[in-house]
Design goal:
Blueprint (H helix, E strand, L loop, with lengths): L1 H10 L4 E6 L4 E5 L1 H7 L18 H13 L3 E8 L10 E11 L5 E10 L1 H30 L3 E6 L4 E4 L1 H7 L7 H8 L2 H17 L3 E8 L5 E10 L9 E8 L1 H23 L3 E5 L5 E4 L1 H7 L3 H4 L3 H4 L3 H17 L3 E8 L5 E13 L2 E10 L1 H52 L7 H31 L5 E4 H11 L1 H7 L2 E5 L5 E4 L1 H17 L8 E8 L5 E6 L31 H11 L3 E7 L3 E7 L3
Parallel strand pairs: 17-19
Antiparallel strand pairs: 1-2, 1-5, 3-4, 4-5, 6-7, 6-10, 8-9, 9-10, 11-12, 11-15, 13-14, 14-15, 16-18, 19-20, 20-22, 21-22
Helix pairs in contact: 13-14, 15-17, 17-18
């Protein structure tokens, strides 16, 4: 009865139980759990080796060795590929092999226990994988912390350092054997030490992190500003026991920020010291800063002026146009500039130049403007303009008078010339110096005639200075001038070379260009050396800056210049008094060139020749 009860209990146990009898390990008692593990019916008395079984060959061999040796054996977490279960999800069992003995202590067979430990084994394997992953992540984290340009650390609740990255030793120059807990506080600047220790102790006592700056001594003895940040390792509801943080050098950034603060203070002091209305505006065009002089000049505070108050300071008739122009510039980013009348604190409107430019940086676009009082200059310019207009009118009247006088004097001169020629033809004198006197009178009349012509040419040139410009062919104009000087060229047997290929055209006034060429070439013919035929080179070329210029070079008498290469030629000034002339030509050339924005350069050697270089434009 008891045996049947025991078998019933064993049969329904969750652990697999089976007896294997004899050296052939024949199936004896097999409970239901073991039947399920073995995959079906197990006929009693059948040998384990001949019956289909999922057991591995190595396990069968171990069973036989246990039977022969009589020593029990336990296999932990043995993997069984059971047909009753999903093969893709293996099952693990603790297998116990216990020999069965008779009264004579002879081995009858084996008692097999199989306990399913799949859940425990999977948990163990998962824990192993997590441990491997943790070690891998820990290695990666260590590499990252030890290669980053920061000092990383870990402290416990008492403030003792559990870990310090190698950067701390590199920075401080301390040996790896140094006691970090003892030395680190000593490396903090004495002025910062107490504050740092107090803030870190307070943060640990409250279970929070910290963020502060202090100076830490570097390996070269220099104190550098550092930023220390740390956060607690929280495991609710327990209090934190570790703080992890980093120390970053911010010395350069701090000095830069300090320099910027000093610069801003200096700029504001400078802006407040300038006797101008200085202001700044946002990207939308609203004024957010006025300097101190603005309040003093307008008699209004920054609050009174507001973001658009400068418009109300303008003369009422100018406000609308100024506001529209300001809105347009804010929308397009164009520079703002205008001349407006602005009211002073005493109610007087004074002329101001208002300028503003947009600056774009990392903070976005901003406007910087200034209002400059130019009332005195504006009124002075009006007075000067009135005087200039009066002088110009007087000058025109004088030119008209000179031109009229020179023109009106020509007729009496012609009459004198005719009377002198008739007197010279019919009259006789007994004076032995007759020929000398006649020659002197003739030269005086010729000089008088030349002076009248030069005066007329000077006035005419003055009127032609404002003549419109056009694109001119230099060779064509030069040939026209040479055609007018043909008689002088043939008489002196001169050789004139025209080299215009480098810069063949010039945008200039035609009359002005003809006058320049005529005076320079005619002077080269007039002041030729008596011992050699004139050789004149007229070359148009480009300067090093790409501007057109004209070279007129001769081999004549040359000049004695006191201020080379840009001498000043004056009206009626002559270099060679023995040669007839009024000294007007070079004065006219210089005046024409200067009035068009150029200048005349001259190099000359006496008895060797002269070179005139006309820079048409600067």
């Amino acid at each position: 009865m008891r045996e049947q009860q025991l078998q019933s209990i064993l049969r329904h146990m969750p652990a697999g139980i089976a007896t294997l009898l004899g050296p052939e390990l024949r199936y004896g008692f097999v409970n239901e759990a073991m039947q399920a593990l073995l995959g079906g019916s197990t006929p009693e008395g059948e040998p384990l080796a001949t019956h289909l079984s999922p057991l591995e060959a190595d396990l069968l061999e171990v069973m036989q060795q246990v039977y022969q040796s009589g020593r029990p054996y336990v296999a932990k977490a043995y993997r069984l590929p059971l047909a009753a279960f999903d093969e893709s999800a293996p099952r693990y069992f603790d297998l116990a092999l216990e020999p069965l003995h008779d009264e004579n202590d002879q081995t009858l067979g084996l008692l097999l226990f199989a306990v399913d430990v799949t859940a425990q084994e999977e948990a163990r394997q998962h824990a192993h994988e997590l441990a491997l992953e943790t070690r891998r992540l820990d290695t990666r984290l260590r590499v990252l912390t030890e290669t980053a340009p920061q000092i990383t650390f870990t402290t416990d609740a008492a403030g003792a350092y559990e870990y310090v990255s190698p950067q701390w030793y590199y920075f401080t120059g301390q040996p790896p054997t140094a006691d970090v807990n003892a030395i680190w506080p000593l490396l903090i600047h004495p002025d910062d030490r107490l504050r740092v220790l107090y803030q870190s102790d307070t943060a640990r006592a409250n279970g929070v992190g910290w963020n502060y700056e202090y100076r830490l001594r570097r390996h070269d003895g220099q104190y550098r500003w550092m930023l220390s940040r740390a956060l607690p390792e929280l495991h609710a509801p327990d209090k934190p026991v570790f703080w992890h943080g980093a120390v970053t050098e911010v010395h350069d950034q701090r000095e830069l920020a300090e320099a910027l603060r000093r610069g801003e203070a200096e700029l504001q002091f400078l802006a407040d010291s300038i006797p101008q209305l200085i202001w700044t505006a946002t990207a939308e065009g609203f004024i957010d800063y006025y300097n101190q002089h603005t309040a003093e000049y307008t008699g209004r505070s920054t609050q009174d002026l507001g973001p658009t108050g400068w418009i109300s300071l303008l003369e009422p008739r100018e406000q609308a146009a100024a506001a529209r122009r300001w809105v347009q510039c804010v929308g397009t980013g164009e520079n703002y500039e205008g001349l407006y009348q602005m009211r002073r604190h005493d109610g007087q409107y004074r002329w101001h130049i208002i300028r503003a430019r947009q600056l774009t940086d990392t903070r976005g676009p901003r406007w910087f403007g200034a209002c400059t009082d130019v009332d005195d200059q504006h009124r002075l310019r009006e007075v000067l303009q009135t005087q200039y207009d009066e002088l110009a009118r007087t000058n025109r009247d004088l030119d008209t008078f000179v031109y009229t006088a020179s023109h009106d004097l020509k007729q009496p001169l012609f009459n004198l010339r005719g009377l002198f020629d008739e007197l010279h033809r019919v009259a006789t004198f007994s004076d032995p110096e007759q020929e000398v006197l006649i020659q002197m009178v003739d030269e005086a009349l010729s000089q008088f005639e030349g002076t009248l012509q030069d005066l007329a040419a000077t006035v005419q040139n003055q009127r032609e200075l404002a003549a419109p410009t056009e694109t001119l062919d230099l060779r064509s104009v030069a040939e026209e001038v040479l055609l007018g000087l043909r008689a002088q060229v043939e008489e002196s047997e001169a050789v004139v070379e025209l080299q215009m290929s480098q810069a063949p055209t010039l945008t200039y006034g035609r009359a002005n260009l003809r006058s320049v060429l005529h005076n320079l070439i005619s002077n080269a013919l007039k002041f030729a050396h008596p011992e050699r035929a004139p050789h004149i080179v007229v070359r148009s070329e480009l300067s090093e800056t790409g501007q057109p210029q004209l070279l007129v070079q001769d081999n004549g008498l040359g000049m004695n210049l006191q201020t080379e290469p840009t001498p000043a030629f004056h009206n009626f000034e002559r270099q060679h008094p023995r040669i007839s002339g009024a000294g007007v030509g070079l004065y006219l050339v210089q005046r024409i060139v200067d009035s068009r924005g150029g200048h005349l350069a001259v190099t000359s050697k006496v008895n060797e020749g002269t070179s005139f270089l006309v820079h048409w434009f600067e």
